[in-house]
Amino acid sequence: MNGDLHAAEGHPDRNLALELVRVTEAAALASARWVGHGDKIAADQAAVDAMRFVLDSVPMDGTVVIGEGEKDEAPMLYNGERIGDGSKPEVDIAVDPLEGTTLTAKGFPSALSVIALSERGTMFDPGPCVYMEKMAGTDEIADLLDLDRPVGETLELVAARKSKTVSDVLVIMLDRDRHQDMAKQIREAGARIRFITDGDVSGALMAVSDRSPVDLLWGIGGTPEGVISAAAIHCMGGRMVGRLWPRTDEERSAAVNDGYDLSQILTEHELVKGDDIFFAATGVTDGDMLQGVRYPRKKATTESLIMRSRSGTVRRVLATHNRAKLREITGERYG
Question: What distance in Å separates the CA atoms of residue 156 and residue 208, rounded to the nearest whole number?
Answer without folding.
Answer: 18
